[in-house]
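PROTOCOL LOG
Step 1. Enter all chains and additional molecules of the complex.
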Amino acid sequence: MSHNHNHVGDGVSRRKVLECMTWAGTGVLWTLAGGVPRSLGIVGSAQAAEASASALTFLQISDSHVGFDKAANPHALATLEEAIGKIKTLPAKPSFMIHTGDITHLSKASEFDDAERIISQSRLDVHYVPGEHDFIDEDIKLYRERYGRGTKGAGWYSFDANGVHFIGLVNVVDLKAGGLGNLGAEQLAWLADDLTGRSNSQPIVVFAHIPLWSVYPTWGWGTDDGARALDLLKSFGSVTVLNGHIHQVMQKVEGNVTFHTARSTAFLQPAPGTAPSPGPMKVADDKLRSLLGTASIIFKPGKERLAIIDTPLQG
Amino acid sequence: MMSLNLRTSAVRLAAAAALAMQMSAAHCEEASVTIDNFTFEPAQLTVKVGTTVTWTNRDDIPHTVVSAGQFRSKALDTDDKYSFTFTSAGDYKYFCSLHPHMVGLIKVE
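Step 2. Run joint prediction.
Step 3. Record the structure below.
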């Protein structure tokens, strides 16, 4: 249960930041106040109860890989269940949850069923986007049957909550040889249309499976046309991009955009370039649930925006 | 009736023999590619026309073997295999449609 906090341009908000930076072992609780999302508290933390009545809180879980049973975690369903168990005990119920993909490992019907059985125990609305592991059944239909209702194309959509505009994107379809994640022209045109006429002061949260920013292209950790989506968002004052796929926390702030990746509930993947491949990483059994711990917070002088990188706690 | 049955059997036997010969011929021309650490190994392979190439996934993550307009495997879980027989010469670029940075090439001569 250790934290390492790295502060860049450490400033007046440090105390406030520290109050807001603790992290969920298996889910991330977000709050939006003044359009700046902040990680709010560990699951089960009393801090969650302090969220102001007007604030919107929501959870992000990712990469549950239901069906995965290899050495890196033979019990991926059990760790998902633990994550949901902690969510159920939150003192303040979040408004909803987003799942940023790789619900299943092999897109089997039984895996989708198991995932649904566990996740529904949270009694939260869940907004899904697919990961590449959710589209590998023979007919590529199981994800869409379950979660595609009311979505466009391969499953993208948007919705509003408490004045925040949420956009779920799909960047795991029609991938090109030698390339990275892909949004495609049709989805980008839809996004442009979706943003047309929207006030630039409206906070935007974009979520998708593969990082929209170039985390590590050598391992495919980025999206070829992610920059085109970000171009469409550049006039907005507050943009937060939430991704999964890389099974570790990463965050950066660029202008008005905060990028963040969530951890997996199933297994760890190595830090970029630290292993021969991005494959599942075996860690000591007693470390699996903590998955190590560094956290950093970036405070940019002159900006309200806080960038938070944090690491789950044991348990 | 009996002679008809015999004749049918004879035809079946001949067909089976032909199939067996074909299979043994193909057997002489086999090659393999291993998928390990998100890499096709060897990344480039040169084979003769008629060769069957078998890919085996050794990773803990599923991969696919896809060559646009040519061949496409289903998702291969750990230790799953996929085979394709190359019947005409040419360069066959392929990739993993799940992890598209994984690319390979089969040169068929």
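Step 4. Note key features.
The first strand of chain A starts at residue 5 and ends at 8.
Residues 295 and 310 of chain A are 4 Å apart (CA to CA).
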